[in-house]
Amino acid sequence: MKAAHPHAPAQAIASLWDSHHFSPLDKAHLRHQDIQSVLDEIAEYPAVTRQTIGYSCAGKSIERLSIGQGPLIILAWTQMHGDEPTATAAVLDWLKLLHLNASSQALALDADWTSLVTLHVIPMLNPDGAERHTRVNEQGIDINRDAKHLQTPEGRLLWQQVQTLKPDVAFNLHDQNPYYSAGETPYPATIAFLAPAFHPDKHVDAPRLRAKQLIACMADTISHWLPCHIGRYDDTYSLRSFGDNIAGTGASTILIESGAHPNDPHRQVARKMNVIGLQSALEALLGKLYQQKSLADYYRIPDNVEDGLVDIKFSRVTQRCGEHEYVADISVNVDKQGRATVKHIGDLSGQSGFTHVSAYQTTVQPIRTFQLDGPMVLTEAEYLALLQQGFSAFVGDRSQLDNQSILPVLVLPEPPAYSTLYPGAPAFWLMHDSEGKQRAVLNGKIVHL
Ligand SMILES: [Zn+2]
Predict the structure, then answer these.
(1) How far apart are CA 84 and CA 326, in angstroms?
(2) What is the enclosing helix (H) or strand (E) of 122?
(3) Which residue would you say has higher pLDDT here, 336 or 116?
(4) pLDDT, tens digit, for every residue of 274-296?
(5) How far is Cα 364 from Cα 325, in angstroms, rounded to an integer?
(6) Which residues, other chains included, contact 107 with Cβ-Cβ below 8 Å and sequence gap of 6+?
(7) Is the pTM of this model over 0.85?
(8) Are residues 133 and 268 in the same domain?
(9) How far is the CA of 142 from the centre of ligand 1 (A)?
C-alpha cells in the first residue's frame, strides 16, 4: 500500500468513476442485451478473462469476468433478483477502473496486486428475471431461496462456482426497496450491509468477523459521501438463502443492498458507492486494514429500518367516520407501474415521506363516485368541474371514458365499499382547508382546484 491520506484512495476511485463509468448503463433497469457490449469491451482488457459459465433457464448466457491470479479469492455476483440491477453496473464499472489503473496507477493498489488476489465477477446471475423485470427467474422461483434445493439452473450455477472457486470473500449484491431508512431517520438507506449468519445462533467465527470488519471499512469510506444514508441489515439466519449458506462454507460473506437516494431514480448514487465500497474492501484486504476494526465499528452502523420511508406522507389530515372526526397521517406509495395507493393511515410519526405534505386543518371529503352511463369524453374543464362537485372517481366500464385531460382518472368497476380512505385504496381523494379551498389528490399528486 502507498502511504496516503485516509480518504485519498477513495477520492481517487470516486473521481475515476465520475469520468470513466459506463454511461450507457445509467438506466432504470438493465437486461441481458444492455450489458453485452460492455462485457465485450471488458473482455478486451489484457488482464481480464471472460468465460461463459452456464445458461439461464431460458438459455441466456451467464458469464464470469476474472482478473488476477493470486491466492486470495474474491467472488462477487449481481442481479440474482432480476429487477435489482444497480450492482451489475457497479461491478462492470469497477473492472473498468481496475483496468485503467494498470496504466494510470491512480488507485492505492500496489502494481503486483493481481499476484495477490483473484477477483471473479458474475454480473447478472438471473438474466431471465432481468428480461421480465421480476425478482424471480423463468421458473417463477426466487433464486435466493433455492440455496438448499438447487432447483434453478442459476442457483446450481452459483453453488457450483462457490464449490469450485472456494472464495475467501464473497459479495452478494442486491437492491432493496426504496422505503428503508438508515436508522429511525428521514434518510433513505442508499447502501445497506450485512455479514449474514451461517447458523441460527448467529455465531461469529473468524471469516464472519472479517466480513464485519470489512463492512466497517467500507461504511467508513462511503460515509465520506453519505454520512446519513448507510444501514445495517438484520442478521436473522435464513436457511434457504445463498448468503447464509455461502457464509457457512467459511467465506467472509458480505451482502450489499443498493437503495434509494433523493432525486436519483436510476440509483446512480448507490452504483457509485458500490464501486467505492468494493474498492475499499479490496484495499482493506490487501493492506490488512480491516484488522484495525472491531465488532463495535460494525454495530455502530444504524439499523436498516423497513418502511421507515414512504413516497408521500400527508401529515395530520382531518377525516370523518360518520359523525366522528379524527386527525391522522396518510401515507401513499407508488408502485413500479406508477399506481399510487394508500399504505397506512394513523400515527405515522415514525415514517418520513420522500415528499411531505402538511395537511393540518385540511379535511378529507367523503368518497363520491360519478356513474358512467355511456361513452363519455372528458375534457380537463369538465373533469375539474366534477372534482369541484366532490366526485373523485368514476364507476362503470373503463373503456367508455375517453380522458382527454392530462390528469389521472380512477374508474372503479363498482362503487367502493367505504366512503373513507382505507389502506390499499387508490390514492384518489378530495380535501378542503378551513377556508374551503379544495385540493384533489389524483394518483397521489396534488391538484389545486
Ligand atoms: Zn435481492
Answers:
(1) 40
(2) strand 117-122
(3) 116
(4) 999 999 999 999 999 999 999 99
(5) 10
(6) 9, 12, 13, 16, 97, 98, 101, 279, 283
(7) yes
(8) yes
(9) 9
Q: Amino acid identity, residue 125?
A: L
- CA 125 to ligand 1 centroid distance, Å: 11
Count of domains for the chain: 2
Which of 274, 305, 336 finishes a domain? 305
Claim to verify: residue 317 and residue 301 sit in the same structural domain: no
Share of the chain above pLDDT 70, in %: 98
Q: How far is the CA of 144 from the centre of ligand 1 (A)?
A: 8
**Are the C-beta atoms of 375 and 330 separated by less than 8 Å?**
no
Q: Which residue has the cell 462477487?
A: 76
Q: What's the rounded mean pLDDT across residues 341-363?
A: 94
Q: Are 259 and 322 in the same domain?
A: no
Domain endpoint, select from 282, 305, 328: 305
Residue-wise pLDDT for 35-59, tens only, equals 999 999 999 999 999 999 999 999 9
Ligand 1 centre and the CA of 10: distance in Å?
Answer: 26
Within this chain, do residues 81 and 179 fall inside the same structural domain, yes or no? yes
> Could you tell me the distance, in angstroms and rounded to a whole number, from the CA of residue 82 to the centre of ligand 1?
8
Cα(328) to centroid of ligand 1, in Å? Answer: 33
Domain that holds residue 432: 311-448
Residues 141-180 pLDDT 10s: 999 999 999 999 999 999 999 999 999 999 999 999 999 9
Q: CATH number for the domain including 403?
A: 2.30.40.10
Would you state the pLDDT for residue 3? 43
| Same domain, residue pair 66 and 138 | yes
Residues 147, 70 share a domain: yes
